Amino acid sequence: MTQRHFLPENPCLLVxxxxxxxxxxxxxxxxTRAADSPLFQTHAAAATTSPLQTTPIQLRAxxxxxxxxxxxxxxxxxxxxxxxxxxxxxxxxxxVFGLGHDSLMWAxxxxxxxxxFLEETPEWVQTTLKIVPDLNxxxxxxxxxxxxxxxxxxxxxxxxxxxxxDKAYLKNNERCRLALNMLPDEVYDKEWDLIMIDAPRGYxxxxxxxxxxxxxxxxxxxxxxxxxxxxVFLHDVDRKVEKAYAEEFLCRNYLVKxxxxxxxxxxxxxxxxxxxxxxxxxxx
Length: 284
Fold this sequence. Notes:
Layout: H1 13-33, H2 56-67, H3 76-89, E1 93-97, H4 103-108, E2 114-119, H5 122-131, E3 137-139, H6 149-155, H7 185-189, E4 194-197, H8 211-222, E5 230-235, H9 240-250, E6 255-259, E7 262-267, H10 270-275
Helix pairs in contact: 1-2, 8-9
């Protein structure tokens, strides 16, 4: 999520029309494919009304992508992995690390659920919410730097509040540097069915990197008390840090699918793993 523009910067007419057409076709494809899905149905009225109960945010998304030259950062194949899970679970709780060109799309694909975006740049949150006030987004203060990734990975096991996974925690955890300990209460108060990690920035040394986001997503998943697994989607797995932290905290044995630069994990609660007698000395 490196570009920060929801609106085109005066492109020529032909480019604008072509890009708008591509965006419109993309959204039509997504919504058409989901026509038989609970995404577009209300629990109470689905049996007596049309299955296509569109919401204002869905209509806003169609209008936005049909008239904008800016398209989501992920490819259609990558998006489809998350979309297929949303089809089966929505309405659900969907936590997204990052606020970008695809945010309106994600919110529109979980129209009656709870979709929350966590963004590293407060100014970008304010700018985005002025354009798309329907979104639920908060700024996050990351205290890590990408150049620290190796040290953090090699040392976290020596801190009891970071390890093991069934005892690790996030809120007010000041001892574990990988724990996102000052997030809005809304993040801690909910169990997240889906977690998308596509931020913060992680392509230069002074960037926050995604170390804390990946670790914290793993802790949330392992703390789950409700039924089912937590679906975690990690983007940019072609990069060294994302891949190393995914293998340490999200675990290869929980990886169910990968397309392009996106990996999809299904992570069970730590309590369930313990009951089955396969709990290890670490997250994996």
